[in-house]
């Protein structure tokens, strides 16, 4: 993926000012900047949820998974069913359960996700993105609400199951970059 001179303004306020970035297949980069500098807007432009004012994004993979800052789960569905929504029949129920168990959710697989703690919900969201089988993982503050042990367990899970997917992670925490294997840190 290649981003060249991307610009985006809201109500006359420039939030992305000629941002350029290249991310190779299998690469990992973490975006770090103060709040309001356009990190989430950049992810939204990559995902096609916002239209840049100028600049371009090229070599964008076809399959993109997005972990938003909010969990965006179907509260009445179980963790397994939330993942099945994006995988369809591509993954069997047993494989989905193994993914969730790997993240420490073995005892909570069949209850509605509305009954799970914030950290447990976050791990369901991350597993859903990983199980989708994307070529690019967009992670917007993926480890918020996780303690240090769960953060490392979840980062290890992502790295184990990413395949050749590139990872672009928005974070305020250098420990997140370290957990993702010493990812390149991009500031703007």
From TrEMBL:
Domain of life: Bacteria
Short name of any one Pfam family annotated for the protein: ABC_tran
Domain ABC transporter: 1-188
One example GO MF annotation: ATP hydrolysis activity
InterPro entries: AAA+_ATPase, ABC_SmlMolc_Importer, ABC_transporter-like_ATP-bd, ABC_transporter-like_CS, P-loop_NTPase
Protein name, entry field: Sulfate transporter
Keywords annotated in UniProt: ATP-binding, Nucleotide-binding, Plasmid, Transport
